[in-house]
Amino acid sequence: MSKELGLSGCKLEIISGSRIRKYSSNKDYNSRLLAQIEKQNSFSRHTFTNIDTPKIISEHHEDLVYFDMEYISGCDYYQYFSLASCVNIERIFLFLDEYFKFLIANSHQYKSQIVKGKIKSKLLSLSDSQYSFLFEFVLEHLDKINIDVRKSFCHGDLTVSNILFHPQKVYLIDFLDSYIDTFIVDFVKLKQDLYYHWILKNNDVKNLRIVQCFNSIWNYIESNYRDYVSSDIFYVLELLNFLRIEPYLTTNKQRSILDNIIRSTQLYDEFARSYGRKI
What we know:
A hairpin with a 2-residue loop joins strand 2 and strand 3 (19-23). The radius of gyration is 19 Å and the shape is globular. The chain has helices at residues 30-44, 77-81, 86-105, 112-125, 135-144, 183-194, 198-202, 208-224, 226-229, 232-245, 252-262, 266-275; strands at 2-4, 11-16, 19-23, 51-52, 56-60, 66-70, 108-109, 150-151, 163-165, 170-172. By secondary structure, it is of the alpha+beta class. It has two domains: 2-70, Phosphorylase Kinase, domain 1; 77-275, Aminoglycoside 3'-phosphotransferase, Chain: A, domain 2 (Alpha-Beta Complex). The strands form three sheets. The protein has a five-stranded antiparallel β-sheet with strand order 1-2-3-6-5, with helices on one face. A three-stranded mixed β-sheet has the order 4-10-9.
């Protein structure tokens, strides 16, 4: 059995009862899958109580890159949260604290000019965006704010679809290379699902228990990591996250969902107030 994954187009195939293989979507994607292998191997070298990642068993670097990893039997977000109890949610709080406190403790200050350069380069790569009218405002905003970013390991795509929920711990999967290496990117990706409900809206999931669970978890993050998720640079990276999603969308429904989310972000609201209108 095989299936295609998310926006990357990579394919997963069960090789045996204990092994699963992930293929690069094409040769152009090889370098990104190699970066994922490096990240997953790096993360697996650390020992955590509430977190793990599937161990990589073998790698194939020639032609089309692929790698084999251990098969983990766990729940996806829908299975876990549609039946979640208070104990289950508290387990997620333990995961969040262990993960982010580790990243914060092992971080160091990014030079502000490097951060600005990375953001400007990423904006230039998105020049075809229908939201290009925001770019000048984002760059002006960057020049006004205090760029306080900690450089650290980050998952790169820490959405709820990239977490397997096991009775004893959570398993992180589908690591992704990031244009900027900071745990703030992981907070941004979590907010994408937990606060904006991107995954629920795209899959027409209308499960009240899941919505309540997501809201509760995001409230926990806001309460305990406010200095990071309410910072000026967070709002810049948040908007940039959604601008980066735009080129991958294939349906009008997805575009409509994304448009509504972008227009509800903090930075878009600041843009609208500055220019006295919403475009």
